[in-house]
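Our preliminary data section would be incomplete without showing what the modeling component actually yields. Below, a chain of 368 amino acids is followed by its predicted structure, encoded as tokens that our downstream tools consume directly.
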Amino acid sequence: MINKIFFVGYNLENNSLSSRSMVSGEIKNANYLYHALEGLGLSVEAVSINLYPRASLQKPDLCIEKSDAKGVFRWLKEGLKLRRILKDKSTHNDILYLTVPSYLPFLAGLPFYKKVITAHGTYWPELLADVRYEKFGFRKVALLGNGIIQLFIDRIAFKFADKLHSVSEFQVKEMVSDYSISREKISVVRNGTDFVNQSVEREYDAIWIGRIAKKKNIKFFLDYIEENPSGKYCIVAGNEYFSIDIESEKRLHEIKRSKPLDIELLQDITDSQLELLLSKSKCLVVTSTGYESIPTVIFEGLACGTPVVCPASWGVGEVEGCGLITYEEGNYSDMVESIELSKGSTDIYVDDVVRWSNRARLFKEELL
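Predicted structure:
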């Protein structure tokens, strides 16, 4: 008989998620799964590792505040704190579930019935996608060095786990090839969404949503806006903790300041606001290059009845729904053609299986 699930993740919150801003999918998806499992009547104890400060954060009772240390030193400090928290709480009737794989080695020997990991992002291929834009120098060498250490830590963590959950079949292949994990150890439990179409006027010609990171390639969307100045556009650009493409960020603010274009730029918006913005948009444009798994925003856009223009790469072919218009990754002219095609799209939807309650039921079956 399972007593409790200890759910470890970044910036977990106890209150309503629709009223909170959660930029990173690694944070958002873990939070929604945590609440969906509670909704199934399971006893879930959250342990939050607070990745960045938020005045509005409704913290669980068990929290680890972000350390001032960097890289591997931060990992050591936070991992030891996590072990101290769980050492006297774990029993043979509890399940340990982590959305942050690298902390599992610190918990070796604790008497959990089962240790389970979901890797919401596969760190090594994602790092390679980011650093390819870096000029050769100390920063690039440091990033790759830290990435190799992280790869080694994650490989150890995955071997300690009794079960691994992956968010896509595409990611499964990476976990087998990059981390040398047996395929039999991995189950696919995709991310989801509870968004619905708000049935409002479609006032934005296109919307772009994401961190201003180089691999997100907002440059394509900015090029499109400048070539089509008569449209009305919306950009939801994360927050200060996730803006790492300084050049594109400067260009975005310069375009907005100096040109007579109708662009609404938003940051730190809540999920209820995001749901409304997607429902107001004629098209969601995803411009990423290099690496994604299945961007959660694809599910969110389709759930709001919004056509989604997205690269035909990664795990995109696994999306359960209708209204996805794909183009060749990194091909700007193909993206523009796909945006034009989206204007005639009808019958946009996602299958009910993507609802978090259904994802959680599948997760529960795999977990127990």
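The mean pLDDT is 87. Residues 138-160 form the longest helix (23 residues). Preliminary results of this kind motivate Aim 1 of the renewal.
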